[in-house]
Amino acid sequence: VTTYSVSEEKRHNLRILLAEDNPVNQKLALALLDKFGFKADAVTTGKQVIDALENIDYRIVLMDIQMPEMDGISATRQIRDLSSNVLNHDVLIIAMTAHAMKGDRELCLAAGMDDYISKPIRAESLIKMIEKHMKNFE
């Protein structure tokens, strides 16, 4: 097990929103985040992501690309749109997708996402990704 550099207090105080419509993937991701001391809430649609971000100042969104009602790309574009009512248009958005095809990373970044991780999510990769970006919050 890798030793992680971010203190337990900083991890616990970080607000993470998980956008994942698959119940098994959602449960797994929430369990991984909890295991490493992160506090996360979960939603299942892009519309619910927008609603949550209008009410709570999350620091990170782990965004599934394919969701019902509104996909992750559309949700990201709306979050970045300064005319939308989200509290933080600059929230860190990490794409999570099973689509590891050439060009998918570029599509996510072009939509305004900050980073990209492919599924299936590996615990160490996810935690390293979050901690890499947490350094920017200080």
List the helices and strands and how they pair.
Blueprint: H1 8-13, E1 15-19, H2 23-35, E2 39-43, H3 46-55, E3 60-64, H4 72-80, E4 92-97, H5 104-110, E5 115-118, H6 123-134
Parallel strand pairs: 1-2, 1-3, 3-4, 4-5
Helix pairs in contact: 3-4
Question: What does this protein structure show overall?
Answer:
The chain is globular. The chain is built from six helices and five strands. The protein has a five-stranded parallel β-sheet with strand order 2-1-3-4-5, sandwiched between helices. The mean pLDDT is 88. The protein has helices at 8-13, 23-35, 46-55, 72-80, 104-110, 123-134, and strands at residues 15-19, 39-43, 60-64, 92-97, 115-118. It has 138 residues and is an alpha/beta fold.
Estimate the global geometry from the Cα principal axes. globular
Major pleated sheet: 5 strands, parallel
What radius of gyration results from the CA coordinates? 14 Å
Mean pLDDT: 88
- Number of beta-strand segments: 5
- SSE order, as H and E? HEHEHEHEHEH
Low-confidence stretches: none
Secondary-structure-based class equals alpha/beta
**Portion in helices:** 40-55%
- What distance lies between the first and last C-alpha atoms, to the nearest angstrom? 25 Å
Strand content: 15-25%
Give me the side-by-side strand order of the main sheet.
2-1-3-4-5
Number of DSSP helices?
Answer: 6
